[in-house]
Amino acid sequence: MQKKPEQWASKIGFILSSAGAAIGLGAIWKFPYMTGENGGGAFFLLFIAFTIIIGLPILIAEFIIGRGAQKEAISAYQTLAPKRSLWRFIGHWGVAGAFLLMSFYSVVGGWVLTYSLLSIPGMIIGNGTNYADLFATITGSPFLTILGHFLFIMINVVVVSFGVKDGIEKTSKILMPLLFIFFIILVIRSITFDGAMEGLRFFLQPDFSKLNTENILYALGQSFFSLAVGVSVMVTYSSYLKKDVSLPMSAASVSIMNIFVSLLAGLAIFPVVFAFGLEPTEGPGLLFIVLPEAFAQMPFGELFLSLFLLLFLFAVLTSSFSMLEIVTAAVTAKKQRSRRTTALVAGLLVFFTGIPAALSSSSLSNVTIFGKTFFDASDFLVSNIMLPGGCLFIALFVGFKMDKQLIQQEFRYGNQLGDPIYNAWFQLIRWLAPLTIIIVFLGSLGFL
């Protein structure tokens, strides 16, 4: 008897799950420190522009590929591409990218898990606590980083084992709205600190003199990272979608929520950074240093910090679910193996692959690849090479190789969008997206 294929129970469940895949470490953890390191407001403006002009069209393209083929990432390209075509490798590129992304993503997820557990008994906020030193202590402990990394992956294994509707969708529908509410509370408190206006100016007032080709590449990579495009995660998610759902409107909803959460993250973080004399260029630890500082100034700060960290943990998990799901779905589709067994094996492989990244702030801190730690090298490879590369391949595939009638059908199902909207999107995906990615990438390598 053939197993019934996975499917989302509702349109809102799909949108919130897709938003959950996008909104996690990309928007909440990585966006603030990347903005702080790359020029503030100018970086934010570039990020918005790239998200709307490049990221959104590619997100629609991934949705079209997945629902058009009705198969997960690897099988989707094999179905839609001509036999013996090199285009069929895009799915493998995506699965490899998602696997590598999760290997260092889960390290940060382990940090969030550790902070969440420590916050429950009130062990983070305290008189005279140096939050930068606390972060260095946690990330510098091989035992804590490996344990957090392992536990975070095992949570993913359990949820993904239950499948799309009963695992990922139910979790996302509850937790994503709660995260928005708590973020708004944090923003209101942050902007009322003395000195907060300087942080708002840094974040919202563009200074284009601070930009260079490397910053522009990072802004492009951040737009892809935060939308979870380029590794065909959204191809797998949309393959579970019914035909009555509008793909362009769903993609627009995900993109708008992603920009909004990035905005909230910046409004929550940078006023506190400047109010307390911290450095916006603090790097990956920025969020973990700033959040306790902000909550420590609030009534019932320990309670609010604990609740926020738990919601942040769930947001991080909804993103990582999608990464483990793409690997699990690819294997179960080909080998007809148990979803639970596949999720466990894939999770363990991710765990072992991520160990060097987990030890990058402790026992392997002096080991570098091209001057970068294992963690930073993995991040750079995924964010600035694999994601832009995957987006380039997807744009070219949809723009030049995929069946045009199928593309148009999938674009128009569930909506009344006319020819002008479709034609504008198709020109963006066929010409502007590939050219922009190529130009920015060549510029970062010094060829332009």
TrEMBL record:
Keyword rRNA-binding: no
Domain of life from the UniProt record: Bacteria
Transmembrane parts of this sequence: 12-31, 43-65, 86-114, 134-162, 174-196, 216-235, 256-278, 303-331, 343-360, 380-400, 421-447
Primary subcellular site in the record, as a coarse category: membrane
One Gene Ontology MF term: symporter activity
One Pfam family of this chain: SNF
Localization, UniProt: Membrane
Membrane in keyword set: yes
GO cellular component, one term: membrane
Membrane topology: Multi-pass membrane protein
Family: Belongs to the sodium:neurotransmitter symporter (SNF) (TC 2.A.22) family.
Name of the protein in its database record: Transporter
Source species: Virgibacillus pantothenticus
